[in-house]
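Mods, move this if it's the wrong board.
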Amino acid sequence: MDARSSESDVPWPFGSETSEDYVPPGPIIRSLDHRLQGYPKVAAFQDCDPSLLIFRKFGWLHTRVLLGLQDELAELEDKLTRYDEWEFAEGNFRNLYSQRSDMARQPSRRQEMIVKIKAKLAEYDELLLRVQKIQSIKRPSVGAQTTLFRLIKNTQCLVAVENEWIRHVPDLAALGQDAGHDWTNGFPTNFFNTISRRLTQAIFQNSEQAHQAGTEEIQLLTSNRMDTFIRMVLIIVSSGLLLAPVFILSELQPSHPSEVKRKSNYQVLTIFLFTVLFAALFSIFTRARRQEIIHATTAYAVLVILLGNTSGTSFMG
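Not the wrong board. Structure tokens:
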């Protein structure tokens, strides 16, 4: 019996894909409890949550190697310059004025130096751009770094000398850090955790994450649920920032000519305070650029004044 016939005779436990009793296989989810101690479990910890993808940049080593290459290039540059000056002093102007003439000489000392320089420049440029890209990687949040450190320490997965890398805080890079795990999510998570960790998991954790976490002290939360919750909070706050000053301005409407000056000052102060509050929240909770913050703040102040005037408030006294 050949391999093809043997494979076709193996029964498929889920039924035929075209039959009514076909049941698609479920996802394969491996619990952290089933991971081997040591580096296998540490890798599982970091893989289960993007915010835990934390590694060292080795910035000092990169800079040290880059400085060495820089000095080698500087030495080659000096040699080429001195050779050009020597040929000029010897009167070999043709080799300086014509590269073809210089290359026609066999061997050409200048061309040998240029070949070495090209190879060294390629090595230097590659590392230079790589270091630029590495240094642009953001540092992990304090919460993510603390969580990973506690997981490694509490489970005793690594020997002491090999888990010291997590303490090199300025040299750490967060590869998987995104909007779903920045500090704006830390507040609702900490808030619900103070009430009950089970409540946090019930709201923001799905069944797959619960199975994956197992009995380990790690909270795997669904970024979509967290984003939805934060969006709802921001909608409420944004509505409040717009309606609250309008309501206050309507209440500060002067009912007597003697109150016009005093209440007009209160109206201006109200607009100023809410505009500052809006600008602060807009710059903190968004990634807007400076000019976008200025434009949004100006539009907000104008909108508040217009709505205040619509409600019957006069800012002109």
